[in-house]
Amino acid sequence: MTPTTYEVLLFGPLSARLGRSSVRIRLDEPAATCGVLRDRLARSHPDVADLLPVHRFARNQEMVPDDTEVRPGDEIALVGMVSGG
Amino acid sequence: MSGTETAVDCRVEIRDGPLVVGPPDWALEDSGSRLSFEGVVRPLEDGRPIRGIRYETYDPMASRMLEELARQVAGEFGLRAIRVLHSRGMVGAGECSFRLDVASPHRRESIDALDRFVTRMKEDVPIWKHPIGSAETRSDQTGLGDPARALSELLGAIHPVGETEEVDLEHASGRVLARPILQDRDSPPADVSAMDGFALRLEDRGSGWIPVHAEAEIGEAIRSLPAGVSMKIFTGAPIPDGADLVVRREDVEEGPAGEIPEGADAARSAEAGGGWMRLRVDPAELDEGRHIRRRGENGKAGDRVLDPGTLLSAPMLGALGAFGVARPVVRRRVRVAVIVTGNELVPVDREPGPTQIRDSNGWALRGILGRPWLELVSRVRARDQPADVRDALDDAIEAADAVVLTGGVSMGDHDHVPAAVEALGGTIHFHRLAIKPGKPVLGATVRGGKVVMGLPGNPVSVLATARRFLLPALRRLAGLEPGGSGLVRLVEPLPRSHPLTRFLPIEWAGPGLGRVIPSRGSGDLVAAARSTGLVEIPAGASGSGPWSFLPWEES
To answer: What's the complex ipTM?
Structure first.
């Protein structure tokens, strides 16, 4: 399985705290899920670990549960703490 | 109800900048009710003035979700038309950033649909607002703050109080050592025996009976060990000159008292004033220096034995006594002022009226602050009005190193502490943290490192925030290292996680074990009163731990 780098889009307080609008996560696992991305993010960026539990993944702009598989070419975003209106 | 399904006129748009439109130009026959809602950017965000709000949107998912939501709400409530407009980017204070227009046969559906739409939108749609303030305050730019980071930012701006004083050893317990304590002499002060036994020269190790010369008592002047004999010696006694080693009592056989043992050289009995002894072990095992503690082996005169920045504990006081430090140099006490705000508070010895309660937070804080290295210099009550809070803070900060403010329990929207801090030209390092209880906690510094801390009014919030944030800040002022924290496992694992860091009161349930005391919320002082301290459960965590434990009684 060729390693794939996913660019996870960030918004709101999560993005503001990290000072960036996306993070790159490289996955080597054959069966990669959003949950794996979440764990990897928590480990590589411990200073946002407290915000992650209230965020959910959007895959190709649809909200999905963490056990959803990710494939190369997917657009992945973390959505949470929304404050529109 | 007519049988014909009419298509809903549904328009959704996200536009850059403020919305400057009026109602839509609908041509609808059936709609007796048209309702418009405008969301306008307020000039204050959480009590602080802002220039405007910058809206961030995840496109095109945000428009798509707004459209799905619009169609869903229209269908659910039987709307004839719905139009949703939302801003993207910068919208100034007083300008419109969101607009919702609905039309329906009667007014009930319009009103309910509007309410439902806004509620659902605020929960689900990927749009975020970033207040753009006139004053930079860190916490609002990054969402609710992380407690550990917030505290370290505050601690970074605090410097220990400089002044020191001498105190009698009598009153030194629990004070902060300001100068290192040096050993005044070598330890041990001379070569001493490590065991009860017999001192011996290397050349006198042998297999036969050895005369025992005399005893060397603890504290007596060092004697010489004549050649050919041994000397009985006790632990701690000085090694007589000439002795090379000590053989343990268990490793020798002592001859019967008052008799010359069989095989001993009777001609030498004059040298055997202390009897006779014979080695039980191989003489080759007895090397030079065996069971001797050399002078200065534990520490030399001038060695540093206690470092500054430590709280004087019982063993430290013992060490000070041993090294002859009758008046250790300590840091002066950290001066703390407490301001309790709340118009509805009465003192402990009064009967509260129907809308009043007694002040409990002032007393709880006194408990937290009752340490030998702190000094409570003032405790005042202030009315919960901006000018009163500002004046009280202004007064208190004169004589204090730290001022703690706590609100009345019915604080509601009143929070005059940030404005009071800003009026003093201070820096707010954190305000509102992702914790429960205690979210509104504020940590600031004014006038070059004096601490101002605003604690929420609820009794358990006061205790949790004082223990977790105030005490470390005061320790820093006192020149102390941050206290370590013990760990505790919970006998009943927490079933659910929470997006905020939680502080839960626990009671002792065995060594390293705690049991959460059920609490009815942050006003439940009784649960807190039964507890020995709090556990800190990080956001998103559940289970039995081990968790960081914050005891009320700090050692």
So the answer is: 0.93
